[in-house]
Amino acid sequence: MKPSDKRMGVLWLLLYVVFALAPLILMLFGERPMGREFIRELSVAFGFVGIGVMALHFVLTARITAVKAPYGSDVVYHFHHRIAFLTLFLWLAHPVILFIQFEWARGLLNVFTAPWRARWGVFSVVFLLGLMLLAIWRRQLKLEYVIWRITHGVLAVLAMLAVMVHAYMVGRYIGTPLKQALWLAYGAISVALVAYLRVYKPWQMLRRPYRVTLVRAEHGAMWSLALEPVGHAGLRFEPGQFAWLTARKSPFAAHEHPFSFSSSSEQRGSVEFAIKELGDFTATIQDLPVGLQVYVDGPYGSFSPDRHRGAEQRLLIAGGAGIAPMMSILRTMVDRGDRTPVTLLYGTQDWDGASFGDELATLQEKLNLKVVHVLERPPEGWQGESGYVTREMLSRYLPGGATNLHVYLCGPTGMLNAVEPALEALGVPPARIHLERFDLA
Description:
- By secondary structure, the protein is of the alpha/beta class.
- It is built from twelve helices and twelve strands.
């Protein structure tokens, strides 16, 4: 990681804590109700911290490059998923404590008789619960990805607006003009971030369209999609990064999908993605006609050797669709004349599922590269590796004597969860193990 990224990473963490606690600090300072029970004050404190944490979810998902650069988009999204449970706990703790401790508070659950300030509080919790349940059970409910994303965003906005109105109408802790102004500014920032992601960025994409120039079938239900910029110079990216792609829809329609670049970062103008058929949208890539106008938002991610200069050796471990960023890394190394020793462990179900097999064989002649195919169902007579990438297998291919080895791991979640601890057990420092989780939602 670049030193500047490390410094920014620490700074963002500090700012996260400050802004998460800002509503509570706002509550404690200045004029506020006195003589209230501690348990009641604790309940309110939970609520205010919950509002602060909820507001920061809009920051985490706004695709602000400076925020995500120190950690990588997948880490930020993973944190977003996990911290959502803390958000729900804080939002529920506030009313539950009141309901348990005070009999009068239980009547506030009746939205037909309760005052409006209480109704807005109930609405906010209902919206947040709906958001969480749909996120957890999306696959079980077979909810289409785009529909879920739109619903997720709408429920998040409604929950935030409802809780802000609730706190404002209660007014006991934000009764002064200064506190009210700061409170409204807090809500306005959340709304502004939504507008940035759903209005400003799509407007930028609309002004910088791309055109499909090639759709090529690869082995393993993989498709290579090549695009060229229309009326602009295109974008620059680092090998291993990804972008959001919108096809057949306006960029304002929130129908974008994340895919890793597979082309060399040294290639000017046009870009290429390697997309595996894994869902409704990816199954239609083969039907995209040459000449179709599409939109690209990127680049994003920190999964790149360019972030870790001076590596003496590299180990790339890919599974399934995880081969896409590895192809970008290897193709970039060819164009740069990079002779750093590199080993690729590539896990697939069978030999027919191994994408880019012929090109990988050619790349071994152009690079200081060793390719190791790992097949779950090897054909009869197979002499190579079979099964899954295990600790024992890794021990055979980890280069010895390297004082600066960096490992890049991209594939299904189960593979990442198994291989990362195996690498650490074999003595690879965690700081030199770089992961890309392509399940961002």
